[in-house]
Amino acid sequence: MRPYIYITRKLPDSVIKEMQQKFDVGMWDHEDVPVPKEVLLLEARKADALMTMLSDAINETVLTAGKNLKVVANLAVGFDNIDVKTACREGIAICNTPDVLTDTTADLTFGLLMAAARRIVEAAEVVKEGNWKSWSPLLLAGHDIHHKTIGIVGMGKIGEAVAKRAKGFEMNILYHNRTRKPEVEQQLGAVYASFEELVGKSDYIVCLTPLTEETKNMFTREVFNQMKRSAIFINASRGPVVDEQALYEALAAGEISGAGLDVFEKEPINANHPLLQLPNVVALPHIGSSSVETRTAMMQLCIDNIEAVLEGNKPKTLVNKEWKPLVRV
């Protein structure tokens, strides 16, 4: 009997056909609707492997639903949607998709910075809505990017890639990270700063930190108050690192100049969300890694990881390094 894989979102036929050569494959047949909890639980009871998304809650109930589950491959770098502790206890490998999306996410992050700084979305809507009446000296005037100071919170691989792009704009680069990165300092001229110093000195504060207990609600009203009034805040990491009410209040009061957001505390957000009512907010639907090439590479990495585990080998990108498969009787 061939191993059974369940995929929690509809993927292209080409991807499924490749998997079907070796495995029996089940899949939730919707691209943009999360799999219901009861369906996921039912499938987990019989699955040898799950391919999941960040919006799927892979908790203890799911991980212990059946006796066959050996691997969960998350189509993302983040894995805070998964109970890794229980997975380790149950001998289940947890895998993610780092590296293959680094440059694509950095492109989007810097594009979001540029859109917020130069009011590109606002300007495009003015033209589309027929409100462009004439040229004027300060029509939709934004902020320069070149020669300004960018502060990167979370200098992982994506942070480093963003810093490289900032270097091309001759920006001054500050960064804050759990550990210093001497090689980044040497190669890019980045300067390590305390969180408080970075927040106070930067013209653009770019959040790329992973979501942990330490980083949850990292950006509070007090933090926004420490920023320059001309500062622009960019979040391309995870929504819960920001107190969204505090961000709204800071933007509405003019305490900071603008924000570019690819992620939110609860996704998807409603069109009535307070942040969407502000003209100085550029909001995107969590598309940091969303290019055809990169998402295809992420899917392939998930397949490779699942295949490795089911064939008794170590996966390429293992999250729980202490993982040891259980011998099930």
Automatic annotation (TrEMBL):
Keywords: Oxidoreductase. Belongs to the D-isomer specific 2-hydroxyacid dehydrogenase family. PROSITE patterns: D_2_HYDROXYACID_DH_1, D_2_HYDROXYACID_DH_3. It comes from the Bacteria. It holds the Pfam family 2-Hacid_dh. One of its GO terms (molecular function) is glyoxylate reductase (NADPH) activity. This is Glyoxylate/hydroxypyruvate reductase B. InterPro entries: D-isomer_2-hydroxyacid_DH (IPR050223), D-isomer_2_OHA_DH_cat_dom (IPR006139), D-isomer_DH_CS (IPR029753), D-isomer_DH_CS1 (IPR029752), D-isomer_DH_NAD-bd (IPR006140), NAD(P)-bd_dom_sf (IPR036291). Its EC number is 1.1.1.79. Residues 6-320 form the D-isomer specific 2-hydroxyacid dehydrogenase catalytic domain. PANTHER family: 2-HYDROXYACID DEHYDROGENASE-RELATED (PTHR10996), GLYOXYLATE_HYDROXYPYRUVATE REDUCTASE B (PTHR10996:SF283). Residues 110-288 form the D-isomer specific 2-hydroxyacid dehydrogenase NAD-binding domain.
